[in-house]
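Session log. Operator J.P. requested a structure for one protein chain; no other inputs attached. Running the standard single-chain path with token output.
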Amino acid sequence: MSQELISHNNDLSQLWEEGYELSIKDGHLLIQNIPYVNSIKEIKYGSIVSTLNLSGNRTLKPETHVVYFQGEVPCKKNGKPITGILNSSAKKSLTPSIQVDHLFSSKPTGGYPNYYEKIRTYVDIISSPAVSIDNNVTARNFKVSLCPDDESVFKYIDTNSTRAGIRNVSDKVAGQRIGIIGLGGTGSYILDLVSKNPVEEIHLFDDDYFLQHNAFRAPGAAKVEDIKTRFKKVKYLERIYSNIHTGIKAHTQNIDSTNVQTLNEFDFVFICVDRGDVKKIIIEELIRNNTPFTDVGMGIQLVDDELIGTIRVTTGTQEKNDHIPKRISFDNGKVDD
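Structure written below.
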């Protein structure tokens, strides 16, 4: 819910993009790690807590100008309280998981137009004395925020989609189960791209080992220890891409006539294998089950110390698949990586 609210609202997104550490909890907006000066002129860190005025997943104009604070009383450089905003001090439980220490009030004429203006105002007031003592302290720490286990398929929040304003586009593939057959020089790069999208699960099928030559055909940089360990390709890639996506599933087997029906549980399948007889089995089953797929073909030749070649990308769907026999060869041909 936090990620969805942040991405769908310009005021919250702007706070996030500027590096503030914010989260949504129990219907409240929290801004954490705000530097301030206490009564003995030490720099401490506290949190602002604000109620949220929402309509569905959209923020409205803040219904109140006040905020709560977790921490000691913020003071000026000389250790005297910033009385201009201090309304009252008393420990209070807003929810079972949110306790606060103070209530602050700074009301502009007409109130705050949005949560960006409201939070920025309070942060500037609270943190200015601390910054004047040490200009290295800041509330804009661009801290990496982890996703709660039940909130996202990602291990940490997708700030790329939020920053680019394309979260609604990314969400079009949310919940999908994807199959990738063959994790060589093509399939591994497809995994790299798909793993950055909010699909529910990504299933990898390949029974080969990740050997030294594979390190030069896959994204990223494998460690020497990984090559020496002789992982199965899918196990190696599962370990790497589980750092970002929680739904990577490795299957140390190839797809053939004995298990091709496994693919019927997927929403989309990428076919990245060379053998034409295997492609034929896979594609016939996907068409029979109305499962959309993309098959990738590549032909490379070395001629006079130059590489020439062609690349083919063919997609089949329930609505359009009669072109498949004309585009995809089911002949095994010569394997020449």
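Operator note: The first strand starts at residue 21 and ends at 25.
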